[in-house]
Here is the input.
Amino acid sequence: MLHAYRLRYLESPQAPDAPDSLWEWHQPWIDHLLWHARTFGRQVVHRYFATWQLLDQANTRLWATTYAPCARYALWPTWHAWLVDYRELLVITREVYEGHHGQRGTPWRL
Here is the structure.
């Protein structure tokens, strides 16, 4: 008999659309789940699995229906705005460096 745990986000105002999390069975990760639940006021769901295969099937189903269909790197409008500001900051940094040192190049060496 395997003990598995996962966080429950249902009916949470902080994460109304949060997906079901995967089942965790390894002790360090269970400790992280418990810490997270205590810190952020979440619930931990406990479930018994008769075999490793049943646990794997449950996590595979969650992965296939919840995580895999999602875009991995969907770009948000706020991210685009930050990127524009960041690029502008890099240009200003380069201009200041060139003004101080009178040479073209980068202020750091890789």
